From TrEMBL:
Substrates-to-products reaction catalysed: L-threonyl-[protein] + ATP = O-phospho-L-threonyl-[protein] + ADP + H(+); L-seryl-[protein] + ATP = O-phospho-L-seryl-[protein] + ADP + H(+)
GO cellular component: chromosome, telomeric region; cytosol; EKC/KEOPS complex; nucleus
Alphabetized PROSITE patterns for the sequence: PROTEIN_KINASE_DOM, PROTEIN_KINASE_TYR
Molecular functions per Gene Ontology: ATP binding; hydrolase activity; protein serine/threonine kinase activity
The organism's place on the tree of life at top rank: Eukaryota
Organism: Maudiozyma barnettii
Protein name, as recorded: EKC/KEOPS complex subunit BUD32
Amino acid sequence: MSQEIVDTVSQYLTPNVPIKLISQGAEAVVFTTPIHPYCPSDEKLIDDKPVQYIIKYRAPKQYRHPIIDKQLTKHRTLSESRLLAKLYLIKGLHVPKLIATDSYNGYIWQEFLGEDLPNDCGFSNLKNFLWMNSKDPYNDIVKDTLFKVGEQIGLLHINDYCHGDLTSSNIVLVRDTDNINWIPYLIDFGLGSQSNMVEDKGVDLYVLERAIISTHSTFADRYNEWLIEGFSNVYNKQGKGGVKKLGEILKRFADVRMRGRKRSMIG
Ligand SMILES: Nc1ncnc2c1ncn2[C@@H]1O[C@H](COP(=O)(O)OP(=O)(O)OP(=O)(O)O)[C@@H](O)[C@H]1O
């Protein structure tokens, strides 16, 4: 199946745009390419390596009626692109830069972020980064990174946007210029939305908390504390109004967690 999709994409993009498959998820297939869609002859180099771009492609789903499938693809591709474009303009918030959208055919071209971690620890998302640090799990860099991840979520929420699928794989870490610290970026806004609902914000926090508990259970309490410290920091800086909003979100977060516990007890 995946070779079929690769062939379709290669044919559509022509041999002028070489692609490499990096992920096949439930929603989309993701490729890298060294080609910029508007400046194809302008292959940039960083540290002697060609700059990469991400191509996210929503393939047609055979089980859907073809007309509905086309409408859904167009709608989801456009909605994710619009969201990326709006979020990119929020000061301090880090999301990939949108480069091009071909909504009728389901393509989003965006900035490539992150790198391969040393010692075969995989791609630099939060999940792999925490694995990489599991021998010294509470070091200052881990603490600082989780605080900054919390701040990113706080910035997203205080601007009334929600992610919708906030797992530790959807947080990509980019090395800071000092080569020691990491800058978190939020990716994959396929289920994202503009929302001022405390419920949506509470669910975002719960999804990430669960993701961290499931992959790093021994250290999860401290990790989640640092995330919430960073999150709270953004709201606390906004004075009384921010503190009030923060209280509402954290209360709802506790309610969502309680509901989750009840559900898992009942089964
Ligand atoms: N801008 C980016 N820079 C670097 N890697 C990226 C970028 N966007 C996506 N990826 C990689 O591709 C993977 C899948 O991307 P994304 O989550 O957007 O697609 P998806 O189909 O919604 O995935 P899933 O169904 O697994 O959630 C990411 O986990 C990440 O490893």
